[in-house]
Design brief:
Elements (H helix, E strand, L loop, with lengths): L2 H9 L3 H5 L5 H8 L3 E5 L11 H5 L3 E5 L7 H4 L5 E4 L7 H5 L3 E4 L9 H4 L5 E2 L2 H11 L5 H10 L5 E5 L22 H14 L3 E3 L3
Parallel strand pairs: 1-2, 1-6, 2-3, 3-4, 4-5, 6-7
Length: 206
Amino acid sequence: MNRLRFLIARTLRQEAPISALSDPRPALMAELAGKRVALVGNARSLAQGHSGRAIDAADLVIRINRAPMPEAESHGTRTDWLALAVRPGAGDLARLAPSRILWMSHKRKRLPWGVANSPGFYLYPLGDWTRLRDALGAPPTTGLMMIDLLATSDLSALDLYGFDFFASLSLTGSRGAAQVPHDFAAEKAWVDALIARDPRIRLTAG
């Protein structure tokens, strides 16, 4: 598909041609199988810790949206996959250099051509977004969608860093919980229940 055809499909909300640009889900699952994965959220509390070395020691490091990395000591340095629900900022993709970009947002009109045309591109299915929204009673965050996706794979371990469910706010903005459309209490309960039944998943402090 060329850029013009993509823009037309995006404008007309034609899901099928946009989905055709995505790597198939089995390709992701194969890449995750047997891996120790670090999923790095953007909670401000992570910047106060010393998790950088542990993050970089994972087989696969996944970051979210603008993926701020204030210090290697707290955040590590690697980015293998980048999960986006916002347009990347100027220079973000060059700075992070992910091998795979996942578009998690249900808002296809925000999907940039450069992201959709990137190697390893993956389009998060609308059905999965809707399922989580219905379960939470609110739109899911990018982090929760990634946790849900990763939990369906055969990874060996999933460590969650920088997830405090907005207790310390986000490194990428100054909005409070009441100013964003997510239900963080519901997301915490969802993650706690998942961890209780899946011993592969651990939530670190921060």
